[in-house]
Amino acid sequence: MQAEVLKNTLTREQILLKRSIVFASILSLAGIGFGIWLDSQIILFDGFFSIISVGLSALTFIMSIYIQRRDDAKFPFGKNMIEPVVIVFKFIMIGLLCIFSIFTAIRDLLAGGRALDLDLASLYSLLALAGCYGFYLYLRKRMYKLQSDLPSCWCFPPTSKGC
Fold first, then answer.
1. Which residues contact 43 (CB under 8 A, 6 or more apart)?
2. Distance CA 25, CA 35 (A)
3. Centroid of chain to Cα 44
4. Which of 43, 96, 126, 148 could join 35 via S-S bond, C-beta 3.0 to 4.6 A?
5. Rounded mean pLDDT, 32-56
6. Cα gap 36→15, rounded to integer Å
7. What is the DSSP letter of 39?
8. How far is the C-alpha of 81 from the C-alpha of 67, rounded, in Å?
């Protein structure tokens, strides 16, 4: 009975992870599209940062499937090492993105800056904010019912014992 409850929880957890990947993909493509259209480095940064989030969500999803597998011969002490590897990957990717953005910003400042249509940039910001907040509320509602630590660690501030 307990194994069935665990399997059902992991399946629902994986559904939330899949939905997060789809939502973040849509948001990142919108950010990149708006960033190119408006010639805005900050909106492009937001789009590329979202792509990193998609990658992390995909890795978390793959990790959740891999952890379920029984291969005690390969991992006699468990698979706890996988999570730090994902965190290091995220750190490296975000660090590289920030370094690239700093150099791009310095180059643009030295060239005299850029003009930006604040009306359209504000529209993008409001749409992205509304979409993210709505998805956050959806995930929070589902996480409360699921009571799982894995998605709560990457979706929300670390408030659970497992984060």
1. 31, 34, 35, 121, 124
2. 15
3. 16
4. 43
5. 86
6. 32
7. T
8. 11
The pair phi, psi for residue 161, each rounded to 5°, is: -65, -30
Q: What is the DSSP string of 70-113?
A: --TTT-TT-STTHHHHHHHHHHHHHHHHHHHHHHHHHHHHHTT-
How many angstroms separate the most distant Cα atoms in the chain?
Answer: 67
Asked which of 76-90, 111-125, 147-161 is least confident by mean pLDDT, the reply is 147-161
Q: How many residues does the chain have?
A: 163
Amino acid at 43: I
Tokens of residue 145, six digits: 């019912």
Whole-angstrom distance, CA of residue 151 vs CA of residue 16: 8
Both tokens of 129, joined, read 């904010």
Chain position carrying tokens 């290091």: 88
- Cα separation, 22 vs 122, whole angstroms: 24
Residues of the chain with pLDDT > 70: what percent?
76
* Distinct helix (H) and strand (E) counts, the chain: 5, 0
Confidence of residue 26 (pLDDT cuts 50, 70, 90): very high
* Tokens at 105, concatenated: 């910003």
pLDDT band at 150 (very low <50, low <70, confident <90, very high): low
